[in-house]
Amino acid sequence: MMKELNLAEIKQIxxxxxxxxxxxCTKNNLRYYLGGGTLLGAVRHKGYIPWDDDIxxxxxxxxxLKLIEKYKHSGNNYRIYSLETHKNYYYPFAKLSDxxxxxxxYSNNSFxxxxxxDIFPLDGLPADIKESNKHLKEIxxxxxxxxxxxxKSSKTRGWFKEIILMVSRTLLNVYSIQYLLNKISTIxxxxxxxxxxxxxxxxxxxxxxxxxxxxxxxxTVLLEFEKENFCSIVGYxxxxxxxxxxxxxxxxxxxxxxxxxxxxFLK
Length: 267
Prior knowledge:
37% helix; seven-stranded mixed β-sheet; alpha+beta
């Protein structure tokens, strides 16, 4: 019988995975940065946002692909999951998983792995804002279809919305999950990270706000996260301002909730 893990234990395992990413990237001269809510947590709370329960890392696409290629031969209790390593993988970004654990998520995703952290690729964008928005819009169109196909049915949604959802899924059966993921990944890599003046995590969760100047990724600084130091982009203030606006201001109490639903167990 497996032991169920509490939130504190889950976070400690996630933190250990983040340390593994830091050590591996440092040893192999790969660039990585804290991203999204994890970077916000480091700046505002010096650790997890109190109501958050995951860890996000960003990597330039060239380093991201090198990590996937090199890490799959590392031979420890951690395993990298990505479109490049697993045929039926379910996300357009990679995850590093602790294989001594089991994660059970409440979603239509049946892909099994352990407690993990998200590793997002960073790609280039056109310098022209109209061309940039056109490029992002194409990616987001496929991502919306993917999300629609991935939504789990719920009795609390109401019968009318459930019917709409079922009809939409039927019409979208022409698109397989793997086709959509490969399409998202291919389009995202159209503009090279190294030669572009603007950068975005096109598979992230913040839409057009992800677009940032290349300069903010020019160097790294160390930021404290849960009493450990990890790499951040030097222009983290501009990045966080793009994503969250006044990022030092706490959100209203009613919005301080986690959007992740899962159970985790130790094997």
